[in-house]
What does this fold into?
Amino acid sequence: MQLPFDGFIRRRFYLVRHGHALGDSEKSARYSTDISLTERGVREAEAMRDFLRNTPFDEAWSSDISRSHETARIVLQPHALDLNTSPAYREIAADLSTAIRMGQGAMNERLATIAYQLWRGDIATSRMFDTGDSFPEYFDRVNAAMEQIAVNATGRTVLLVAHSGFNRAALCWAVGASVSALPAFEQDTCCLNILDIDIDATSGRIVRRHVRLANFTPLDPAKHALLLTDGEESAFKVAELLKKFAVD
It folds into this structure.
């Protein structure tokens, strides 16, 4: 929409995390494209579809990872709209299987490292589980991706289905927070965030950013069943996968 007082353009982003997903191989404990939605993940995506059924999307994006574009295609079922995919919206990379093997101490201590990685005091200088992307470098990539889509999107109402790490960094970008704020923005599976970005169309400059909604889950709005954090969920997933491979 064009704003009434200064004539700038407001572009709205419906930023969604993919639904619950879990692979069935050891490499699924790594950053992988093979992880698909579970039955729970499909139910979450269908609830998001129903919640957003009457939203007038005119552009849609997801990462090129299967769990992301599977979620997006379900959400878009009521909409006659093509889905665009891009690696720019991928999750922060990490090899949890290797991190477990390299870790020190008992298995529970190593799983605790995974569960609470984002709360480490050295997040501004560390890598994801010491095996993956640098937090600051990933944070900068997400900032650049959000700047680009905010300015260059052709639509005024945009669906973007991405990942927990991406969405956390995008919310930090929206409020002007540093990488140290990543853990504050919890992202439950298939949650919805709404961002309004005001743009000077003449110069292509972003002039204002607004957070309208964060971490809303249509399948469980009161979050009665959502007691674990994203990190704790990840630790449980890794523990289940690694049981198959007798990792001590």
About this structure: The mean pLDDT is 87. The longest helix spans residues 135-152. The beta strands are 9-17, 59-63, 84-86, 157-162, 192-200, 205-216. The chain has one domain: 9-95+133-231.
